[in-house]
Amino acid sequence: MLTLHADSRGRALAVRGEWVLEAGPLEELTRAHPLARVRRWPGILTSGLVNMHGPELLEQAYHPDPREADELGTEPVTGDALAALGMDEARWGASARRGVQRMLARGTVVVAGTFGNRAVAAAVRRSGIGVTGRLGVPDGVPSLDPFSSGLPVDFPPARESGSAARFAVFDVRDEAELAERGGGSCVATVVAGRIVFRRK
Fold this sequence. Notes:
The protein is of the alpha/beta class. The protein has 2 domains: 2-47 and 157-198, Urease, subunit C, domain 1 (Roll); 49-148, no CATH class. The protein contains 7 helices and 11 strands. The protein has helices spanning 26-32, 54-58, 69-72, 79-83, 89-104, 118-127, 175-181, and strands spanning 2-6, 11-16, 19-25, 37-40, 44-46, 49-51, 108-112, 130-132, 167-170, 186-191, 194-198. It has a 4-stranded mixed beta sheet with strand order 3-2-1-4. Strands 5-9-10-11 form a 4-stranded antiparallel beta sheet, with no helix packed on it. Strands 6-7-8 form a 3-stranded parallel beta sheet, with no helix packed on it. Helix 5 (89-104) runs parallel beside helix 6 (118-127). The protein is elongated and about 60 Å long. The model has no long low-confidence stretch (mean pLDDT 96).
């Protein structure tokens, strides 16, 4: 089924399956595809964010299950506290799935880095989030929200006809407000044409 994803500025993407069929003004796309389902999102539609600290956040940190909040809190566990957890493959895989979901909730659609932990690599691959290489270890502070890392925020290339249906929508007026409010303003993230995060 063809779906038009449109933002408050009238920009839209026509998505079929895992691919962007067309990009352009909503008015033009609705004329070209009158039977398409239309999803109107508040704010701005972007190509999503790149998180430069993939391995640091997914292989050097444990993302607690909500049921562990009383014991471990809700923030990623690192350092000596992580070493004390006695991690096994199953626990690493579950942690990576939660970590990726928390990234998606902040509009991240691509993580940078190479994953050496098999369970983490499998969880990342199954999630559909994009993976890109990087040179060395980036500066900045690993954060689930790329806007909090202290690094310039990187966006994947703009979505256009024939590109992967991977993007995020933020409930802000423009890019300046997005930089101010950060990834917490994300209302929806789409990966492989599927809505993988939607703010309730």
